[in-house]
Amino acid sequence: MKLDETLHRIELIQGDITRLKVDAIVNAANARLIKGGGVDGAIHRAAGPQLAEACAKLNGCPTGHAKVTPGFNLKAKWIIHAVGPVWKGGVANEKSLLASCYHQALLRTKELEAKTVAFPAISTGAYGFPSDLAAKIAWKTVLSFLSSNVIPNKVIFCLFDSKSYDIYASIQKELLKGN
Ligand code: ADP
């Protein structure tokens, strides 16, 4: 598939991922899949207490992998819990683990036949991954996956703060320009 067509399947939004009406949202979860802070806390609050019960049955999730629960009270049908790496200065395989986390989440969308999926900026909050580097990895992994898969049809990067949104937007601009 041409880069141009692939780029048009990726959309940027600034806001709260819990409010999106998509087939699946991705959670920046922790390896124990227990309710945390940040986007994970917001998703648990919005999905309701059934989410914690469903997560407890999954036996955790290794870093770089992703597991699925229903969306419960969310508009999204599914939640894909992806576990990003904690930034340890770049010496602990963090880049590959973050790429794997996006790739695994995308594989789950394919299995679920989820046509639309929204990602937060995984690992860039409490886990301390540098935002610029994380955004490059997110773009690269998603573009590569979409170029050879028809599902998901659309990927939304949902950025909470304007700084993250600007980083994603400047990468998008460069990609569109170079095309
Ligand atoms: P991690 O532990 O993987 O770093 P965090 O939840 O701490 O996860 O942060 C990941 C990103 O999610 C941060 O950029 C943070 O600003 C963002 N975030 C926090 N709440 C929301 C929300 N409701 N919707 C979308 N993104 C959010």
TrEMBL record:
<dbReference type="InterPro" id="IPR002589">
    <property type="entry name" value="Macro_dom"/>
</dbReference>
<dbReference type="InterPro" id="IPR043472">
    <property type="entry name" value="Macro_dom-like"/>
</dbReference>
<feature type="domain" description="Macro">
    <location>
        <begin position="1"/>
        <end position="176"/>
    </location>
</feature>
<protein>
    <submittedName>
        <fullName>O-acetyl-ADP-ribose deacetylase (Regulator of RNase III)</fullName>
    </submittedName>
</protein>
<dbReference type="Pfam" id="PF01661">
    <property type="entry name" value="Macro"/>
</dbReference>
